[in-house]
Amino acid sequence: MPSVSPSFTPSSTPTKTNLNPKIILGTSNQAHEIVQYSDLLGHFRVENFLSDHDRDLRDMAVGDVDNDGRPEIVIANHNHANQIVKYDENIGDFVAQDLIPGETMATRGVAIGDIDNDGKNEIVFANYGQVNQILKYKKDANGFEVTPLMPSERKLNTAVAIGDIDGNGKVEIILGDYGDTKDNQVLRRLDSGEYLDVHESHNPFKTLKISVGDVDADGIDEAVTVAGIDAGVGEDCEVQYNTVIEPFNPPKIQEWEIEQGCFDSRGVGIGDFDGDGLNEVVIGNFNSHSRIIRYNKSKDQFDLVAQIQGIGTTSLEVVDTDGDGIPEIIVGKSDAYPDQIISYDRATKIFTANDIPSLKDRDTVAIALI
């Protein structure tokens, strides 16, 4: 992407995007919303999602977790019961149920994936100061079995992702930590069902989000972690470190810094915008412009290729929303700024941002597509 300007200003002119999936914008202690572009109407449709939801939502994940062939939405709530959301065709609306009735956890992150290689997805919850959990659906019990993940550990985990980052065909669990030790971890499942901690960063990271994808075109996925200030603005500047976790003489794992500075990164996504086969990394910052970087193999470093003007980013996803093979950036913002969809035109090499309408001011902390 060498001809992309290192800085660009999002356009306020709406662009027809023909969104197919429904974008769920999850907020903290506010009504959530579903946004979908309508070709017929020529604009975004906005509807309430779980309008009576008054819990402290922190993260969402989408996947088939009860083996019925349809995706569910799993909501991670802080100091409230975590939930599963299913679409009820009889009433034409989404319905939420507590995953573990009566259980209250300080959950900050959630991921869905097949971590035991049986062809069925599990749910992994990252809990802040409590034991992390794996939930697996049991059809005969019509409910979820809960297994503690590394039961002897109680770290201040704020993020979790699932992916095969050592190229062995089996996924690992990547945990981001915000505590005094600030140890990002990679957990590998053994044949015994126990988990082996194969990497701890031992570096001053305050990880808030993790995304998995191949960022150096070596055919093996990496985990990109971004760090920020969990409590928000108003704190003194503190140097943060964004990192890449990757295999090093597999099965060993290494972690190295790709950025450091006084930024507050709240979101990260991975996608190939210019179609050259090398993914770019989008880092969403709360207190400064968000950044798009890419790996420079000759220098063995990540270079800045574009900036997204504007502050207030609180969440971010990179996904192809219109099926044209080019990913879009969905940016969630604090309630002082509108959420946005940012698209890239490969012919003009220009990024264009469209504001997403809202029924009310929202502080978008998580984004999911279904």
UniProtKB/TrEMBL annotation:
Biological classification of the source: Eukaryota, Sar, Stramenopiles, Ochrophyta, Bacillariophyta
Pfam families listed in its UniProt record: FG-GAP_3
Compositionally biased spans, kind Low complexity: 1-17
UniProt-annotated stretches for the region Disordered: 1-21
Protein name (database record): VCBS repeat-containing protein
Record keywords: Signal
